Amino acid sequence: MATVQPNHNFEPSTNSPLKRRCRHPRVEIVARDEDSEFVECMECREVFESSELRDMEIEDSFSSDA
């Protein structure tokens, strides 16, 4: 039976949030509730509530104005 050895040389990929922050340019709706909608980013695969995406866009517009 094969055993899995831990990889001690792990380096985060270039898509890792440790390297850069994904701006979620392409999202797809993955679930809906009565008052919520959840989307998945096609770039980083993060799932979050769609209202958070709007909040991120607002925050980005304020930080780019500064």
Overview of this structure, please?
With 66 residues, the chain is of the alpha+beta class. The chain has a domain of 39 residues. It contains one helix and three strands; from the N terminus they run βββα. Strands 1-2-3 form a three-stranded antiparallel beta sheet. A hairpin with a 5-residue loop joins β2 and β3. It is flat. The protein starts with 26 loop residues before the first strand and ends with a helix. The model has no long low-confidence stretch (mean pLDDT 77).
Question: What helical percentage do the residues reach?
Answer: 10-25%
State the total count of DSSP E strands.
3
The helix tally amounts to: 1
H/E element string?
A: EEEH
Shape: flat
Average per-residue pLDDT, rounded, comes to 77
Layout of helices and strands:
Blueprint: E1 27-32, E2 37-41, E3 47-49, H1 50-65
Antiparallel strand pairs: 1-2, 2-3
Provide tags for this entry.
three-stranded antiparallel β-sheet, 66 residues, alpha+beta, 3 strands, 1 helix
What's the quick description here?
The chain has one helix at 50-65, and strands spanning 27-32, 37-41, 47-49. It is α+β, with helices and mostly antiparallel strands and 66 residues long. Strands 1-2-3 form a three-stranded antiparallel β-sheet.
